[in-house]
Every structure is written in structure tokens, then in C-alpha cells.
Amino acid sequence: MSTGSNGPTVIKNFDTWKKFLGERVVQAERIGMSDETISKLAFEIGEFLDKKVDPQNSSNRAIKELWDVGNAAEKHTIATLMVKLAKNNA
Hints:
Elements: E1 3-4, E2 7-8, H1 14-30, H2 35-52, H3 58-69, H4 72-88
Antiparallel strand pairs: 1-2
Helix pairs in contact: 1-4, 2-4
């Protein structure tokens, strides 16, 4: 993933992000990671992105706003749903 002054370029386009994440999820499953572990990693990535990356489009901004108002359990749900969405786009 390349980075620039505005953060990782892969997440500027939501469709690119879904495909990228989907490919990573498939790779994680191939090496034997459980769905629970993958969801935990997605949560950690979400926490990182929330703190470090300014959303560049309305789709990313909407997800960030949902993330910001969610409690820990809701953020885990968002992370799990993002993994499912990504798997469907892999």
C-alpha cells in the first residue's frame, strides 16, 4: 500500500478499498486465520485508520462517522461487516 501526504492511496476509492481488503481476507483464510481473528484485525485496522487517515470521499467519511459514534461492540460489528463486504468483493 503506497502512502502520501493524505494517507494510504488505496483507501481513496471505496471500491478499491473493498477489493484490497477482500484479497487480504482471502489470504488470511488461506493461511488458516479464523473469522474471529480476521475481525479483530479489521477492528485494529479501523482504529488505526480512524486516528491516522482523513477520509477522502463521502463513502469513507460515512464509515468514519459511524465508527466515531459507535461504542467498542458496535465498532467490532462494523469491522465484522466490513470483512464480510470485502469477502463478497474479493
